[in-house]
Amino acid sequence: MDAVEDADLQVQRTSPALLAEIRDSLEPFLWRIDQCKDGSGGRRLRIRRRVRTKETDRVVALLEPFQELPQLLDPHLQTFVPILADAFIDSLRSKHRNNASQTKLLMPVLRAISKILYTLCKIRGEKIIVRFLSTDTKHLELLLSAIEAGNPLDARKASGDEIDNSQPHFQAAASTIHRYVWEWEERYITLLWLSQLLLAPFDLSTLSSVNTNDEVPPVENLVWPPKTPGVTFRVLPLALRYLSSSGKERDAAKTLLVRIAMRRDMQELGVLHALIQWAISCFDPNSTVPKSSYHYIGVLSFLAGILNASMSTSDMDPYLISIFEILQGERHKSIMNVVHASVLARKVVLKVLRNISVIVLRSPNSTDDLIEIVESNIGVMFESLADIATPVRIAASKALSLITMKLPAYMATQVVDEVISSLQRDIFFVERGSGKVQDLSRVNPSEWHGLILTLSQLLYRRSPPVNNLSDIIPALLAGLSFEQRATTGASVGTNVRDAACFGIWALSRRYTTRELQEIGTSSSPIYERHGASSLLQILATELVTTASLDPEGNIRRGASAALQELIGRHPNTITEGIKLVQTVDYHAVALRSRAASEVAVKASQLSNVYLIGILHGILGWRGIGDGDASARRTASMTFGSLAGNGTLDNLVSRFRELKPREDDERHGILLCMAAYCKVQNLPFDLKEILHYAKTSKHRRPDLIAEAVSRLIVSISGHSIENDASILELLGLWLRRNETDVIVASTEAALRVVKHLQPLSQECVVTSWVNILAENQSGRAGQGIGIISALFGVFPFTLTMQTTIIDAIHKRWSTGHDIETRAAILQCLTTSNAILSHMTDFKDIIIEGLDDYTTNARGDVGSLARIEAIKAAGTIWKDINLEDKDSINIINDIYGKCLRLAAEKLDKIRIEAQQVISYAFPQNLKSTFNLCSTSSEAYFSLLLDIITKPPVYFLVTSLEAWQMQLLSGLVGSLDTGSEELVRASRSALTAVCDSSPANRNMICATLYEILKVNLDNDRLLIPTMEVLGFLFDVQILQQSSLNWRSLYIQIQKAHYKTGNVRKLEAAIRVYGGLSEVCPEAMEKLTSMALHPFPKVRNQAVDTLFIVKNVGKGVNWLKASKADLAKLK
After folding, report:
1. DSSP assignment of 146-175, as one string?
2. β-pair partners for 47
3. Residue 618 to residues 330, 545, 712: CA-CA distances in angstroms?
4. In angstroms, rounded to a whole number, what is the distance separating the alpha carbons of residues 562 and 527?
5. CA–CA separation, 1081 vs 1072, rounded Å?
6. Across-strand partners of 107?
7. What pairs with residue 429 in β-bridges?
8. Does residue 306 contact residue 276 with C-beta atoms inside 8 Å?
9. Which contiguous run of DSSP H or E holds residue 34?
């Protein structure tokens, strides 16, 4: 239900360290730092040619978290961006840049810089980042030449002709076509930078490097105006090419085109007119050249950018009708049908229509034809408000608000009225309880999102007059509680509520307190349950409810922000306003469980108006009707602590009104009853509820079982009638497999059985034992609830304890499914039976510690091992050191825990670490517990236990402990993660090198593990690999092992096996034995002709390393005659 941690808070907390690491990393990452040879102590920086891909990804990963709070980067952009920009320029000037090809591990430094700059653009926005790029026009030639050379196709003419070597700016490209080719990141950054350089305040003709009398590059449908500067000849084909790209280059190319077209000197030359005519010709329906949808999107983006840039001028007035005809005319309908298939294209079309309308409305003397264009565009905007794509709806709502702001007052009112009337379609009010409730089940959620967002945008620009607010505010409140479920059960109302939060925030910001106080609250049924509260108080109450109970974190935070704006802009109008803002804090509502259980309670304590609103919300879809069962549980606990007198009767009434399919709501109401009865310590007649649970069919019987069990627990302090009916139902529910049902029904069963007479208790326990016996061969996990109940009643059913122990043992021995075994061990850990009958359950714990069951799911036995470790820890914590039986049990269990503390699974080691530490002295215990279980220090301390044990009073079988520990350690030494293998091997070699006695003990113990596990590949193969490793590091050669005995055991290990990994491990050991045992060399030589090619290659490689023989032969096709070359 909740995220692990609030992302914003995490970023705020870690941002200083992240920013410091980025700042310290950039310079050594981008440049080689050489010391000056003149003895001055200075430094000389040389740009790197290539950098590590892994290091680039690390820098990008350091920046990614700032997407949550991008403003944290602002003070540092003036440092980071110039460093990256200087490195970008230095890389372009480097003589090696064209030879910096990319490999798997390395990438060109130019690409790395571009990736980092793009990440900054993605986080903070390209308009912010380009401000920090150099505007020195000397970079223009360098950037143009670089992008032409880095993209050889751009060096060709638009018509596809070969490179013209007479053009100087093409010569570099011609020589590097076969070399480093740019990817989209380099092109994107370069195009953006070029667009920034074109802000130069002097004519481009003064910057041209090409004579305008030279041949101009032909571009399809583009008529070059006379006297066009050379820079324009180079920039326009480049931008037009990438305007059709499917990537981010399109955005940068659009910006570059708009920037050059809107320059005053270019307009005087006719470049703007030429580009507009080119764009219009791209939509020629008679064209036979097929074009991609991305081409049309790029051209439309260019038109939208040009129109937006010319908003305050008349530059585009002559072209408005032509552009409108392209988008809405019948002649271009076939092309536009193709364009409208793309969501992005529909969004861009709306931007173009919006800009046309705003330009038309700017002029007071617009013709009737232009006014009709505006009216037509408004109609298109209203149709787009119901588009299935969210970006299109957002664009349409923003466009409508901008157009409405320019309309005359009477027309603006008509737009607002149309939005409100559209919101009132398909809405019905239904009777529920004592009032009416809006039924929004038939409305279109997409259209509602568009309409509510439009109202919000209008309010943000203060377009609606005050007399329209009485109709707008009820719509916003309806949107604030809007919810629909898709057929899959997923919520489809989140964006509507988000838009409503924005609308209330805008309303609070744009309208005065006096204006809002004058609005009446009697015109809409939505105000009825708020009584005589003012409009501002109603808004505050609804925002508190949303911020406390909404299932989406963004909505809760949006409501909190709107509430803060409402109270801050309109002081002394909201009850306990300052305290309310401090309670419903932006960060406090981030976690849903905290918002529902803490924020809601604190807000309710401030005033009765907030209490009523929150209780109403809990009894709605945000509480008992929520699709998430855990959210309903949290809401019910909050309800129980807040509800007052008469609540129980209302809940029973709501329970009776529910339809059979409404199991989620029924579950929530029953939980609310249980929480209320528990908090108020009230009795409750269960007769009706039990009858319903027993006789009715449910879509989710597990929810009913859990909720009724909770209700039984909540009233267990009072006399309960119908014990037989309750026990009958609980007996059925204890057989279910759902965890929540097992926990609830077990607790309910214990409460009921505890109040029975001893004879009745025995009958109940006997029936449960019989049920458990019946499920011996049932499906996995069957009977876990019964097991939990038996352990629960164990302390107070003294006469039945032997029967319970026998039943548990029988179930353990016959039920081999891991779920049941893990459940038995888990119940054992939480029951006092493990302490009072330690010897009776010793064998179960030992078997659990040794459970290595594997199936298609993997090492499922780890579930049992974890619970067995916890049970062992329970024994250890309360151990009686004077009890001989307890000491013997600990000795048997502790060695197995040592094995688990060293094995390769992280979750096993973490659990075993705590148990192992119980045997340490207090000073060493704290050190051990602070060690990471994947560190060298951790494994060193483990190995110290078998070399210099700290638990002298317990050690009765140190050799057995040595076997156990190394049996677990071989897995970490061989098949663990890279970090784990490195740490464990380092610790092992350090112990072996510390003394000959330790080395001999380790090697002898590994030999014993090998000897007794010849049929157990789980231990055999890792042990052989570790022996091979010890040979490689020259440790095993110094031990006192019998080499022939080891050779014989290795032969036995791989005799007639088809396991390739086992054969490869054996070859590694033979390679080490070949130095001290001649027979091993003969065996290794014979394996050069093994039937398996992989084994054959491994054997020959080992022989080459050991004896430097085997070269010049294709061993995949070798025969016995070739073996002579190995001798």
Report:
1. HHHHHSGGGGS-TT-PPP-TTSHHHHHHHH
2. 31
3. 54, 9, 22
4. 19
5. 9
6. 51
7. 438
8. yes
9. strand 31-35
Residue among 1074, 1080, 1083, 1053 nearest 1065 (CA): 1053
Q: What is the DSSP letter of 529?
A: G
**CA–CA distance from 825 to each of 306, 855, 888 (Å)?**
72, 20, 20
Do 11 and 65 touch, CB atoms closer than 8 A? Answer: yes
Beta strands 435-439; 428-432: pairing state: antiparallel
Is residue 668 over pLDDT 90? Answer: yes
In whole angstroms, what is the distance from residue 513 CA to residue 572 CA?
Answer: 10
Note the maximum CA span of the chain.
Answer: 113
**At 437, phi and psi to the nearest 5?**
-130, 140
50, containing H or E segment: strand 50-52
Query: pLDDT tens digit string along 548-583?
Result: 999 998 999 999 999 999 999 999 999 999 999 999
Asked if residues 1067 and 1098 have their Cβ atoms less than 8 Å apart, the reply is yes
Rounded Cα distance between 253 and 195, Å, is 8
Q: What is the pLDDT of residues 1100-1120, one digit of tens each?
A: 888 888 877 766 676 677 676
What is the C-alpha separation between 1033 and 1026, in angstroms, rounded?
11
With beta carbons less than 8 A apart as the criterion, state whether 808 and 787 touch. Answer: yes
pTM of the model: 0.81
- Of the candidates 181, 174, 171, the residue with the CA atom closest to the CA atom of residue 147: 181
CA distance 1037 to 1019: 22
**Residue 236, C-beta contacts closer than 8 angstroms, at least 6 positions apart:** 219, 222, 257, 260, 271, 275
Q: Which residues contact 1092 (CB under 8 A, 6 or more apart)?
A: 1060, 1063
CB 464 within 8 A of CB 407: no
Whether the pLDDT of residue 911 is over 60: the answer is yes
DSSP, collapsed to helix, strand or coil, labels residue 783 as coil
- Do the strands 43-47 and 50-52 form a parallel or antiparallel pair, or are they unpaired? unpaired
Residue 630 CA to residue 1072 CA, distance in Å, equals 59
Spatial distance between the Cα atoms of 254 and 11, rounded to a whole number of angstroms:
34
DSSP-derived pairing of the beta strands 31-35 and 43-47: antiparallel
Top mean pLDDT of 721-725, 814-818, 988-992 is at: 988-992
Beta bridge partners of 28: none
Token duo for residue 411: 């027309």
Least confident of 104-108, 188-192, 770-774, 1114-1118: 1114-1118
Is the pLDDT at 41 greater than 70, yes or no? no
User: Look-up: residue for tokens 């050799």?
Assistant: 959
Sequence-distant (6+) residues with CB within 8 A of 583 are 599, 602, 603, 606
Task: Count CA within 13 A, CB hemisphere, residue 431.
Answer: 1
DSSP H helical segments within 310-342, as ranges?
A: 320-328, 333-339
Spatial separation of the C-alpha atoms in residues 754 and 136, rounded to whole Å: 86
The SS3 assignment for 754 reads helix
Q: What is the pLDDT of residues 123-154, one digit of tens each?
A: 999 999 999 999 888 888 899 888 887 665 44
Contact 393, 387 (CB under 8 A): yes
Instruction: For residue 428, report the phi and psi dihedrals to the nearest 5 degrees.
Output: -130, 150
What integer is the mean pLDDT of 10-34?
87
Residue type present at position 505: W
pLDDT band at 883 (very low <50, low <70, confident <90, very high): low
CA distance 450 to 482: 13
Collect all residues with Cβ–Cβ distance below 8 Å to 321 and sequence separation of at least 6. 369, 370, 373
DSSP letter, residue 625: T
Q: In this structure, what DSSP letter does residue 590 have?
A: S
Of the candidates 78, 146, 148, 85, the one whose C-alpha atom is nearest the C-alpha of residue 113 is 85
Distance, CA of 864 to CA of 845 (rounded, Å):
9
Mean pLDDT, the chain, whole residue set: 85
Coil, strand or helix at 47: strand
Spatial distance between the Cα atoms of 851 and 843, rounded to a whole number of angstroms: 12
How far is Cα 449 from Cα 423, in angstroms, rounded to an integer? Answer: 10
